Structure formats: structure tokens, C-alpha cells
Amino acid sequence: MAQLLATLGLTIGLALANAACAQAPAASVEPNDYGKTETWLCLPGRKDACVVDQTTTIVQADGKTSVETFKAAAAPNYDCFYVYPTVSTDPGGNSDMVIDEAERRVVEQQLARFASQCRVFAPMYRQVTLAALRAVMMGQPSPGNGVLAYGDVRDAWRWYLANENKGRGVVLIGHSQGSRMLLDLLKNEVDGKLAQANLISAYILGMTTPVDAAGKFGSIPLCVKADQAGCLVTYVSFRETSPPPANSRFGKTDAEGRRAGCVNPAALLAGKASTEDAPVHAYLSSKAFLSSGEPKPFAKGLTVSTPFVSLPGLVSARCVADGDFTYLSVKVNADPADPRTDEISGDIVVAGNVLKDWGLHLIDVNLEMGDLVALVDRQAKAYAGR
């Protein structure tokens, strides 16, 4: 377990998030100056971590392949503000503000592709580290401080609004710990505030978003159609063949009876309800970064030289409410006549055992990346026309 937690790049347990957020920041900690470019992982108009190869090998059901290139938009009309998940390998409870390879790799997987639609902003923040996660998972008090981490995200958001927004629409994007930060940001800085008028949508991925009986987080509704602005997209993903067990923290109804929100971007784009099955447009990593081992071969005899692979029609998903859990149920449409893989990587595996309570947390974003990017465009147009 210790070895796994030392190498995982995209995970944080809700127990850690809740424990960390209960702490107050040290009085001696100085706030970051987000007017300094070095406090940002990604900013528009510069060659940084978000200017990275997104070339994709597309593998059709008959085994034929093609290469899809990528180009960032020259002058996008709206912005994306992203908060990354738990990736820091720094030794303390909270990370420093130095950009390491871990932060660079996560924006390659989760943010860079959005540059085809929006200006991308990704602040560095003193997040709760993998070391803190490891301590909590081993039954020890967390050395991490979630209030400090959130304060950085809040300060970056306020700097962005004051200096870069200038009335533009903005999409909030986060995963795991980043989504936890954004839920607090939505509650404290957006919902009912002037900034809500600029909200195109919020993508709260890989984290339980509690919603009321009307399907709202505060006053912000879940998205129910593609051409809708000011709404929220959220899900946690599990294999259809391995739904969340009783000990899973993801997707569980909270103590107040609020169910986890679930929105399936692929279904919205297809004009369906989120509970209906729809093929997802996944961009899976060809590297080992997003799994606990080497990725499974994508097709018989296929050698992949691009950073990403897309397998049209192989994977589909729908939102499911079962017992106390609401989640995105992911199905691999295996076909013995199809030369492509009958399985996808994405589970957390320790000593040969799958940690079923985590589901497909490692690839929450990759699974629907193509759909998320397409949905952003539809929502931005709806925002511009309202």
C-alpha cells in the first residue's frame, strides 16, 4: 500500500480532504502573489506545461488506424480555470510552489486538450500532498492543511477575475482534490455572487457533488442538456462489472440525504438523458502514468507512438443510482471479432488485487475527455446567446 500511495498521481480520499479542510492555516504562512507568472502552471500566450503534444492514434473496430493532430485555438472567446488533483510528490503535508514533473504530466492528461476551445489558466497551489494521503491511509493524522490549499485557489481565482476575466465567460474544471477545492470555491465565491454571471459551466470530476432533490448544488443546477449554460457537470466512474462497494467514499449519499450528482457528457451530446447509455469519446494515455502498471495493449499487433489513443465505440457509459450510490457506470463493449482490446486500464491494483472502492478514479477525465471538450463548446455558445 505504501508503495502504491507513493506513486499514485491522481488520487485523494474524501477522508483526507475532510480532515485537512478542518484545519486552520498557520498564521505565519504568507499568501501567494498570483500576479507573478511563476505561480501559474498554465497561462495564455506562453509556452508552458499546457503547450504539449496531444496527438492521438485512432483505432477503429476493424483495426484500421489513423492519426489525429491537435491545434490550440488562436483567439478563444472564453476561459477555462483548472485546479489539478493530488499529484505532489513533495515530502511535507502541503506542496511547495515549484512546478515539478508531476504537475506537468497531469495537465497533459486533463487540461491541455481544452486549449482547442478556451484560454487555459491553471494556478499552482499548496495542495495536500501524496505524503499526507499516505499518512491518512495508514491511520495517522494528516499533516496536510486543506484550508491553506483552498486559500491559494481562492486567491488565484480572485486575481484572475480582477486581472484577466474582463467579462469573459469561464468554465471551472477540476478533478479529485481539485474538484474539492472547486466545490468550496463555487459555494463561497460564485454561487449568488457577481461571478456567477460569468459561469459557463463547472466540471467537478472524480469527486462526490451532493445535490438537493431538485438536482442543484446551492443555486447551480446539474446540466440536463448540451445547450445549457450556468450548470454543473459531475461524476465518479466505476466499471459496470464492478459497482461501488459499501466502503467506497465516491458517489455516496451524504448524511443529509443528498445524493451524489451524476451527469454524463456523452449522453447530453447525443440528446439523451444521463441515465441512458451513450458511447464515450475517450482519450486514453498510451503511457503508464494513468494506471498502476503498464497499459494493456490497445489492439493486437498495434504499436502506438502517439501520447494518446482513441477507440471509437469501444466504451460507453450511463449514470446509475443504486442504493446509496450514484455514479457513472462504464461499460467496455467487448467484441471477440474486434481486434481491439476487450479491456481498458484504469484500476488501482495492489499486489494483484484491484481496489474496487476507487473505481476508475485514475481515468475519470480521460474517459470523457472528447465529450467534455465538445460540451464546453456547446455550453459556451449557449452562454454567448443567452
Automatic annotation (TrEMBL):
The keyword Signal applies. It comes from the Bacteria. This is DUF3089 domain-containing protein. It comes from Caulobacter segnis. Coiled coil: none annotated. It holds the Pfam family DUF3089. Keywords: Signal. Residues 1-22 form the signal peptide.
